[in-house]
Amino acid sequence: MAFPKGYAEWVARRRVAAGFVVAAAFLYLAQPTERSLSLGLAAGIAGILLRGWAAGHLAKYESLSTSGPFAYTRNPLYLGTLLVGVGFAIAGAQIAIGALLIAFFLLFYLPVIEEEEKYLAAKFPPYKEYCERVPRLWPKLRPRYTTGAAFQPKLYRRNQEYQALAGFIVGMAILAAKHMYLA
To answer: 95-115 pLDDT, tens per residue?
Structure first.
């Protein structure tokens, strides 16, 4: 899918602000139950763990990341974000939330992925071969490309992935509080 360059740049600059609007709508619409919270928490934790694993292998702007989860999918951070979104959608227990989060991902994240891949192809010549072996988003079950680099906690910290973890914890805590208030 090819998005117009202007649109991709526009959403790249506005996706965080738009994410706060989506989060507010999500919290307003959410009708969490004990079961939806449990299932959503499990899916969301999978996404947060994937994001954390990826962040520990990502040396932004320095080198092409091909180890860890990058050996299975070119965009493990975005896949992790998608899983976190699915977790929140399940936890919120409203179909409208799922539709909202899917639309947000398609309209905001897919164009950003496309632009980032153009940048990586221009900056790192091996990226073309990497793309031929590793899928864009949905992972292969076996690694297709790797440098064998290990997870680096300093990269996790430098990439500030702890912010995503904190946001996830706060979001789930708000949903749990909303469930207790509604019960």
So the answer is: 888 888 888 888 888 898 988
